[in-house]
Each structure stands twice: as C-alpha cells, then as structure tokens.
UniProtKB/TrEMBL annotation:
Family named by the database record: Belongs to the peptidase S1C family.
Keywords: Hydrolase, Protease
A molecular function (GO) term: serine-type endopeptidase activity
Domain of life: Bacteria
PROSITE patterns xrefs: PDZ (PS50106)
Hydrolase is among the record's keywords: yes
GO BP term, pick one: proteolysis
Residues of the PDZ domain: 265-366
PANTHER family: PEPTIDASE S12, PROTEASE DO-LIKE 8, CHLOROPLASTIC
SMART domains (alphabetical): PDZ
Origin species: Candidatus Woesebacteria bacterium RBG_16_42_24
Identification of the protein by name: PDZ domain-containing protein
Length: 380
C-alpha cells in the first residue's frame, strides 16, 4: 500500500508540474510572440486600454489643433445695398419687401500676417460689395483691400489690425492618401468655426468649382480631395494636418455627393503669396482675348471642319483683335501645339508669358491661315 501511495503521489506531482510548466511557458510565449488565438479565450485587458488610448489621442489632436488654429480663422461676410423689391400675388395683389442691407456670412479665411493679411477664395469676394471680417472673439473689421489672383481661386484681403495670430503654413508636396485632416470654417454660411475631420481621399484631382452663394465657376486642377465635411460657407477656410499646419484651402464641395470636398494645395497659395508680398500684386497671366468653344472630334467630323477652338467672340482691343482673329474662326494650332478637347486653348495659353509672341493656325471658310499675336498681361 505504501508503495502504491508513493507512486500515486509521484504521478500526481509530475502531472501538476507539467501543467504548471505548460501554463508558464504559454504565458511567456504569449508575451514574447503575441499569440492571437489566446485572446479569444482570455481577452487582454490591455488591448481595450490601448484602443481607448488611441481614441483619446485622436480626440486630443483635434481639440489641440482647433484651440490653437481657431483664433487665426475668420468669417467673411458681405453687405449688399438695401433695395425694395416689388412682388405680385394673385391673392394679395402687389406688395413690397426689402432685400439686402444686412451682413450675410458667405465664406471663411485665415490670417497669414500679424498686420491683417488674410487668405480666402477669389469666388468668396468676387462681387462688387462691402465685405467685413469677423474674428473668433467676435471683433469685426472692414475689408480695406481685395487682391485677386487671376490664375487661381485665391484672394488676399487686408484689414487694419495688428497683433493678429497667423497660421502656420505646411507643405502640400508630401501629402499621402489616407492622411488625417481637419477643416475649420463657417459651415453653410451660418455656423462659424465649425470643426470637421476626415482623411485625404485623393490627390491631383481636376474639378469645375463654383459658389452657390456667388454664382462663380472656375476650372481647378491638381486639387486635394477629402471626406472631411466641407459645406458652402467653408470656402476659403484652412485644411489642416494633425500638427495644425495649413496644407490646403477649402474651395468646393461636390453638390451631388456626400463627403466629397476639395482644397487647393497650400504650396500653390504660398507661391502666390510670396509674389504678392514681394510686388504687392499677384503674378499676371497671359491674355489673348477670345471667347471660344472647343470642337470635339465627333462634331468636327459631322460638320466637316477641323478640331480646335471655335471663336465665339473677339474682345475689342485685345491681342486677338490686333492679330486679325475673327468670330467663327477655328484656331487649330497655337505655338505649334494642336488644339483639341485634351489640350484646349487655355491649356496652351497658361504655359506662355505676357509679352510673348505666338503663331496661330486659323481655319476660316475652308482656308488655313497663319497669324501672329503678342499676348498681353491680364491681372485682377
């Protein structure tokens, strides 16, 4: 009996030791190699903690950026002249109401100098009206000067102020799709300093943008696409990275889609701003002086005419008028480049400089002519 009990004791001790070694070895292996299947059986308390920490970290970034940058973001408002509008109703007859005369928030901007230089979109301040700027603390400033970039949807507005806090301009040359971004602006022209977040959804996009409030339309290339909520009224506001640096200027939102917004790369803005600070004006762009419509390949075949830019109108006194271009001409080549839907007249002109002389190949009444024009300077 003693021998049997001893055997049972030794066997039990060996089994217990084996279980202890297995548990200890599993724990060590789990810590060293992070065995995921064990998490299904015994969830890690630390994993939930790390997830909570990540959420808190993201929230902290947004809060920090919003608190630091919001004082540098302004609301742009416009005041149109007061006028009385006459209306007729079949039930009540004639009546009148007053329009205008009160400020209306229409866009956003951000401060780039302590003495009151502010960047916004050109379409935000395109009307011939009186504009004001409202800062985060509610102070109002009259806009004393507006300078519009003829080549981009950018404008610099000036207010008489000092001691302002400018934003930090980042670098849009090394952006990545999926990068976290923050937008600040006056959403819907009503909700000032609205903060939204998202990611960069795409780079190098080409869009036709406009303002529902101002009726302004322009073709924009190489813009940033983001899913951060951008609404009418956000135009001109900053698109920021997680460090609080401006990487883009919010410019448009897709009207027929959700969570599709666009911003001008800040490097384009910095180049234009440097030019403005040096010379007091934006770089001029070359000007020919024609209104035209591109003829597609199918339209050219159907009408037995060449592809090119069909001239609708020639501006009086313009380089085009001086060169002898007439309405109903078709410009087929400019400076040796063939014109088509993929290479429009504007695409070729933008590569040139004011004062540059260019040869134009014209199709007129079945004949091909060659004319020369000296591009002039166009600035706003």
């Amino acid at each position: 009996m003693k021998v049997l009990n001893l055997k049972k004791f030794v066997l039990g001790f060996a089994i217990g030791l084996l279980i202890l070694v297995a548990i200890t070895g599993g724990a060590i292996a789990d810590r060293l190699f992070g065995l995921k299947p064990l998490d299904l059986l015994i969830p890690r308390e630390g994993s939930a903690l790390r997830f909570d920490q990540r959420i808190l970290t993201e929230e902290s970034v947004v809060i920090d950026v919003a608190e630091r940058v919001s004082p540098s973001v302004v609301t742009v408002s416009v005041q149109t002249p007061k006028r009385r509008v006459l209306e007729f109703s079949p039930f009540g007859g004639f009546s009148s109401r007053v329009e205008g005369g009160t400020p209306q928030d229409i866009g956003t901007g951000f401060i780039v100098s302590e003495d009151g230089l502010i960047i916004t979109n050109k379409h935000v301040v395109s009307a011939d009206a009186t504009y004001k700027v409202v800062t985060k603390d509610g102070k109002e400033y009259e806009v004393t000067q507006i300078s519009r970039d003829p080549s981009n949807d950018i404008a610099v507005i000036k207010i008489n102020a000092s001691g302002l806090t400018p934003v930090e301009l980042g670098d849009s040359g090394n952006l990545k799709v999926g990068q976290f971004v923050i937008a600040i602006g006056t959403a819907l022209g009503e909700f000032r300093h609205t903060v939204t977040t998202g990611v960069i959804s795409g780079l190098g996009r080409g869009i036709t943008a406009g303002s529902a409030l101002e009726g302004y339309v322009e073709k924009l290339d190489d813009v940033i696409q983001t899913d951060a909520a951008i609404n009418p009224g956000n135009s001109g506001g900053p698109l920021l990275n997680s460090a609080g640096q401006v990487i883009g200027v919010n410019v448009a939102v897709a009207s027929d889609a959700q969570n599709v917004g666009f911003a001008l790369p800040i490097n384009v803005v910095k180049e234009a701003l440097d030019q403005f600070k040096t010379t007091g004006k934006f770089a001029s762009k070359p000007y020919l002086g024609v209104e035209y419509q591109m003829i597609s390949k199918d339209t050219a075949i159907l009408n037995n005419v060449p592809q090119g830019a069909y001239v609708v109108n020639v501006v009086e006194g313009s380089p085009a008028a001086s060169a002898g271009i007439q309405p109903e001409d078709i410009i087929t080549k400019m400076a040796g480049e063939e014109l088509n839907e993929d290479n429009t007249l504007a695409d070729v002109i933008v590569k040139k400089q004011p004062g540059e002389k260019v040869d134009l190949e014209i199709w007129r009444d079945g004949q091909t002519l060659t004319l020369s024009a000296t591009l002039s300077e166009f600035s706003e």
